[in-house]
Design brief:
The structure holds 2 protein chains of 2 kinds.
Chain A lengths: L2 E3 L4 E9 L6 H11 L9 E4 L5 E14 L2 E9 L7 H8 L4 E7 L5 H17 L9 E6 L9 H8 L6 E3 L8 H17 L3
Parallel strand pairs in A: 2-5, 2-6, 6-7, 7-8
Antiparallel strand pairs in A: 1-2, 3-4, 4-5
Helix pairs in contact in A: 2-3
Chain B lengths: L4 E3 L1 H17 L4 E6 L4 E6 L6 H21 L7 E4 L5 E7 L3 E7 L5 H28 L12 H7 L3
Antiparallel strand pairs in B: 2-3, 2-6, 4-5, 5-6
Helix pairs in contact in B: 1-3
Chain lengths: 195, 160
Amino acid sequence: MSFINYSSREINCKIVYYGPGLCGKTTNLQYIYNKTNPEAKGKMISLATETERTLFFDFLPLSLGEIRGFKTRFHLYTVPGQVFYDASRKLILKGVDGVVYVGDSQVERMEANIESLDNLRQNLQEQGYDLDKLPYVVQYNKRDLPNAIQMSELEEALNPTKVPSFEAVAPKGIGVFDTLKAVAKLVLTELRKGG
Amino acid sequence: MIQQLVMYEEELQQINSICEILHRDSNAKAVLVIDKNGQAIAQAGDTQQLDVTSLSSLTAGNVAATGGIAQLLAEREFAGQFHEGEKTNVHISIVGQRVILVVLFDERSSLGLVRLRVRKAAAELTIVLEVMVKKSASGSGQPSVFSEITDDDIDNLFND
């Protein structure tokens, strides 16, 4: 649910990075944070455990510039990927404007990928959203690992609706901004339609 | 699609004025109004030193988590929270099931006074919010500028 402030001429949108545990959601945000001009970003907040696993969410506010005199602000969130944090994941999806699903390319994570994608669809449904109607993109992370499986297989299993998808190596930034731009564009396009 | 929230000048002025009166009458350090999704809507008082964006997101997360606990305990919601610090205390309440009213205060005020003043402010805020939601739903406040956004406008945002 985007928040349009005619008074301060701002559009605020919420984008959620979803995916299985250790797929690289937080790494995506960290890369964006490190590569963004200080004036365009706020503080990145990570509510993580002592072992740096996301406990509740990461949060990164980002300004993308002006569109027709309105400042566009994107609030990027990640969810905790581990299966037992499902209650927290549901909370973070509230008010979402766009979703990035981050899949892990490693063959042994395929089951976790599919489980997480099903979980995303289900949790959105519980909040009254339909994944097929939301601005939504897919990122296949960890493309540099030797056990990464073929793109065609990933696409078949994780992107049946053929939304825009991107190959990524998040720690090196490969595909990170492409993914963000794609989802941000879809969110703004949705806004144009009258959201 | 779930209804988006639109803020117009008139309602924002009313909300700002409610915040300022609450700030003054409760002797608070600062007052914030936050959308339940974590967007800051209005603020009053000494907010220069505050990271309002982060505070808003974390408070909304906190309220969402507390709401989750309420559901598990078959409560509708916990309407209020109070955090006691050494120097600063935080009073958090949900108004009109839609926004979060946050009051930061120190030893110059008291929980009793804050609670009393929040109750009055919350009642006033609820009325403004109802108007705002109605306006958002009907889109009657102002013609949307977003219908005129072109693909080029969107592309231009990403030219770096």
